[in-house]
Design a protein that fits this description.
The protein has 311 residues and is of the alpha/beta class. Helices cover 28% and strands 15% of the residues. The chain has helices at residues 16-34, 71-75, 104-110, 152-164, 204-213, 223-228, 244-247, 269-272, 289-292, 296-310, and strands at residues 7-11, 39-43, 59-61, 89-93, 102-103, 136-140, 168-172, 196-197, 216-220, 234-238, 256-259.
Length: 311
Amino acid sequence: MVTFDPVCYSVNSTALGDVLAAVPVVKYAIETYHQDCDYRVIASKHFRDLFTFVPNSKFLVLEDDTWRFDKTYSVRRLNDVDKKGGNLCRLTPSKMTLSHYASIGLLGKILTKENYNYVSLPQVDISKFNTDFSKAVVLIVSYRDINRSIPSDELSKIAAYVHERGLTPVYVGRTEDGAWKTRAPVSPFTPPSYGLDLRNQTSILELASIMTKAIAVCGVDSGPIHLAGTTPTTIIAGYTNVDWRYRVPVRTRGRTIVIEPDPMDCRYCSSHWLKDFYNFLNCYYGHNNCVKTLRAEKYINALTSILKDML
């Protein structure tokens, strides 16, 4: 009989999109290799609801320091480059014997689309918002980085179009520090008088349930876009410094419409240059031209086609 050391699946990222992408890989690894052995999953307490397949007895809170093994080593990122970063997650034995480990990034590449799908989340009660979300379009209006955002004036035009079509624009995102955000986002968008402002008002599961009922979710590559990937709802997602082919949510249900920046030499720089000599959170040239070409008309054209198909 083959025996295994206790295995710890450590998801050390505090970014919602990163964790959502890691969840199906952890699920696959557990079900394939470690279902009958002693395993644990470590993740931030804010993401507990994403790991629906993990019993409470096997879930360890990243922010808790009461576990009985070397926490610093367990949660450090795999393949660190001069200790500045690396892959999102690490699978390693809790005994620290290094007898077996695997990279989430590697598993994500070898899994088929049938196996590697974003894991659906349980629906929760959203009646307290008193809104018919089946007649709503969710707009992600706050972003961590200016080089991965929709310009505020373009967001306003999209919201106006949704409103003119007799639908409800729902504004979501975080505008303050806390929860899974380590710092407040930079987008200066101010919602108009119409629509429903749910910024800072929902839990992760509530937002996912709202997205499930909505006509579409519009935004730029971000945590909420990946959250929409757990639903069958149509996603309209823009991409700037990262190539959508590497970042689009993986799912076998639901449609994703990609909004690309206008052609330019530095489009998808972070993905194509393959260099770590600058901070991908900022534009290397400082002009953010790719962001400026995520014009409202591109999103409105996609929304128009969706609404036409619904008639």
